[in-house]
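Input.
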Amino acid sequence: MSSRAEEPIDPDPGPEHTWRPGVRLCLDWGKARIGVAACDRDGLLAYPVETVANGSGTMKRLKALVDEYEPFEIIMGMPTDLRGRQGIAASAMIDNARRVTRALHRDVRLVDERLTTAAATRRLAAAGRDSRHRRSVIDQAAAVAILEQAIEMEKRSGHAPGELVSHETEESQGGGTQAGG
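Output.
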C-alpha cells in the first residue's frame, strides 16, 4: 500500500492564506451617483447600503456612512478595458480615491471592476426588476459585485486585493499611490 494514501491531509493551508477581518465599504463611483455596499467583519456577506448623489454633499454623506459602518478600508472599482489596461477613466478614479482617502481618513483599495455593472444589470433583470427600478439600485448592486470580487480575491490569495491608496501616505506626502498586492 502506498504511504501517500496513509499521510494525513493538513487542513491548514498555511499562513499565506489569511483574511484580514473587518468591515469594508465599497463605492461604485459614477459621475451622477455612487453605489455603496458593505460586508460583515468575516466577509461572508456583501450587501447594498444606498446610492449617494455625486455632488456637493457627497463627502459629508460618505463620512456619515464611514462613521456608521466603521470600515477599516474602502474598496473602489478601478475602470479598465477588457485587456486590463487603464485609461483616462482610471486616472480620474485614482484622483477620486485620493480625495476619498484624504476626506475619510481610510485606506482605499482600487479593484478591477470589469463587467461588474453588466453583471449587476443582468442579475437585477433576472430578478424581475424593470429598467426604471433598476436604475435606482444598479449602482448598489455593482458595488456589491465589486466587493464580492475583492473578498474572493483576498480569501483565495491571502493578500489584500487591488492597488492601495493609503490615507497615511496621502496625508504625509500630499498624494501618490502604493502598489498593494
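The radius of gyration is 18 Å.
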